[in-house]
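Hi everyone,

Forwarding the result from last night's run.
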Amino acid sequence: MTATDALRDLFPEHARDIKLNLQAVLTDGPLSVPQRWGVAVASAVAARNPTLTQALTADARAATSDALLDDTFAAASLMAMNNVYYRFNHLIAKPSYAALPARLRMNRLAKPATNRTDFELFSLAVSAINGCEVCIRSHEKVVIEGGLTEEQVQHAIRIAATVNAAAVALELVSADGQR
């Protein structure tokens, strides 16, 4: 039994769909195994659930490389910063703010440990969870230009959505104290 399987057993009955979806999105689809796990781990970090992050990271470690995991953590960390900054600029809708330089270091985006397209895919998933339209559009453009299909992008977002829902289901278990 994997760490993710054990975690799925904790889901309450009302989260049965999430439990089944989590298994489905992680075991099948148009993404490569490293892409699936990278999106899942980055999404768990973005969902801020340590239990889910630990389980997915443990299973990802068995299926991928340390370099890929390093990229997932870097993508989640950078997007935690960028999504707030660029979402603010978008929502405030004042050209004067957009004209100011960000002055935020983002070198890892240009030099990931694995490859740029996968790093951008992980960043896209995190940006979807964090609701940053500017970042979503930017990362989607780069991954499509990098050779991924819309079906692959859609699957990455399905993973992000399911992982985010899994985090909520686990928080409800913790808050309620019941299964």
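The CA atoms of residues 89 and 98 lie 6 Å apart.

Cheers,
N.
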